[in-house]
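Standup, Tuesday
Yesterday: got the pipeline producing C-alpha cells again.
Today: sanity-check two examples.
Blockers: none.

Example 1:
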Amino acid sequence: MRFKNLLFYIFCLSFSVVFLQEIPNTDYRISKENPFGKYNPKAPKQVQDYEELIGACNCKSERRKPDGTWATPVKTKWTWKYIMNGTAVQDMTLKEDGSNGGSIRQYNKDSLKWYVHYYSSKVASPRLGAWSGNKTKEGSIVLYKDQKAPNGTDGFSRLTFYDISKKGYKWIGEWVDKSETVVFPFWKITCIRND
C-alpha cells in the first residue's frame, strides 16, 4: 500500500512540474495592479513606441464635413493598453456621439513595421482596414495605407501621432498623394491625459 501511495505521489509531483512549466508567464497582462498591462521585455523593443500613450486621455475629435469645413468637435475618451501579455497594443475610443472604435497594434520583427488593424462600431466590416509604419527619429508615429482620392488619384491614408508627451498627444488623419506633396487633412484629434 505504501508503495502505491509513493507512486501516486511521484506521479502527482511529476504532473505538477510539467503542468507548471507549461503555464506561460502572465506578469504583463492587464490586472488590478496594472490596469493598462505592462510591456513584456521579451517583445520587440518597438512595442514601447506607444509607451507614452498607454493609459486614458480626454480628447476632442474633429472630422471634415463633405463641404470641406470642420464639424463641431466630439468629446472622446481614448484608452490605450498593452495586450497579448505585453507583446502588442490595443486602443479604444468612446465618443460622446455614441460611436466607438479601436485598433490592435502589432510590431512585426521580420518587416520591421507596425501593423495596425482598425475597427469601428459604425461599420461591421468583413475585413479590417490595416495601416503600417514606424516611429520616426523625431518621435512621431506615422502609418500608411494605400487609398485613392475621390477623383481616382493614387495615394495614401496617412495617420500621424505627434507632440507625444506624458501630458497627451495629437493625431491627424490625412490623404496624401504618392509623393506626399498634396496633403488633405480629414480628421484630427487632440488628447490630454486624465489617468
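Example 2:
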Amino acid sequence: MTYYYKPRCKCKGKKCSCGASWAYIEDIGIDPKTGKRKQKKKSGFRTKKEAEAAAAILKNEINQGIYVEETNLTFEEFAYEWLSTYEVKGNVKESTVRIRKHEIKRLLDYFAKLRLKSITRPQYQDALNELKKRGYAQNTIEGANRTGRMIFKKAVELGVLKKDPTEFTYVPKNKKTIKDLEEKKDLPNYLEKQELKHFLDIAKKMGLNQDYIIFLLLAYTGIRTGELCSLKWKDINMEEQTISISKTYYNPTNNRKEYKLLTPKTDTSARIIDIDESVISELIKHKSYQNKVIMKYRDVYHNEDFVFAGIDELPGYPFYIKKIENRMRRLLKLAGLNTELTPHSLRHTHTSLLAEAGVSLPQIMERLGHKNEDTTKNVYLHVTKEMKKEASKKFKELMENL
C-alpha cells in the first residue's frame, strides 16, 4: 500500500518559502529481525504525479525482487567494515591485510566522508586519474583500484548498494615514447652471464659473512628473498639435491625478533627446486661453519633451524630482507655494476640464463613458482628472440663457408 501526502505549509498565507513538497510512504516488506512492517519514505517531489511516478518505480523493483535498500554508511565506515571481515578469512595472510589497509588510505583522500551510495563512476575515475597526476607508481594505483573494486563489489553483493561505480573504470597508464620502446624500458634489469660471474666472484672475495652462499643460492635457484630468509635446514635435501619452498619471511618493521613465517605468495609458490652439486657443496661448508657458531653462542642462540642467521648480533635470528638488499648494493658498487639492481633482479637473471640455456617457458615458470607472470614472459621472450637471431646468423655463416 502506498500513502501520498504533502506536509502542511508553515508559511500561513504568505508567499511560500518553506519548500513544502509531496512525499510517499511505501511498504517494502517485513523486517526479519523484528517481524514488523518496513516502510520506505521519500519526499521532495514538486507534484503528486512526480511522487506517484517515483513510487511506481519502487513498486516495480520490489515486485521483481531487485529492490536494494542502500546503506547510509560513508565510504570510510564501510571500507573498514569490509576490511574486518576480509581479515578474518582463514586464507588471507597478514601481509595482504596490511597492503589492503594502505590501499584503502589512498582512496580515503577522495571518498572518506562521502556516503557509499553517492559515489559515482566519474568521481571514481577522477580519483584514479588524480593518483596518477600525484606521481604514484603504476603498481600503487592498480593496487588501490583493486581494493576499491573489492569494496564496492562486496557492497553490491550484500545488497546495500545498487550499482558498482568502479565498473568500466580504468587505471590510466603512461604512454610509451619511441625512446622507451627503443631502450626496451619495460624489461626488468638483470645481469648478463659474465656480469653475474663477476658479481659472484666479488661476493666470494670481498663479501661479508654468508654473502657468497646467499647470492649464489638466489642466482642459481631464482627463489624470492623472503623465501630465502625463511629457509630451514629441514627444507634442504642434500642427498636428493633439492630445496623445498613452503613459506616466506614477513617482518614489515625490520625488528628481527618480531619476524613471522607465512605461507608462500601464491599456491604455485610452494614447490621443490633441484639444485646442482656446486650449490650443495657450498651449503655443506656453510652448515659446518654454522654448527661452530651454534656451539659458540649455545646459551643465547635462537636455534630454530634457519639456514641464514645472525652471528654476533642476535645470533640465530634469521636474516631480514633489508639486510640482504643493503649487502647486495655494497657488492654491486665494489663490482662496478648497476647499484639499482636488487636481490629480486637475481630472480630475473635466473630466468634469462635458463632461457639462454634452452629451458622452456613452462619449466621456468614452474621452477620460479609462477602460474602467470608477465615479467617472466617478457624476459624469456626477449632472450629467446636474441637466440633466434644468433641461430639465423650462424646459418648464414655456414652457407657462406661452403
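Quick observation on example 2: DSSP finds 14 helices and eight strands in the chain. The domain at 193-390 is CATH 1.10.443.10 (hpI Integrase; Chain A).
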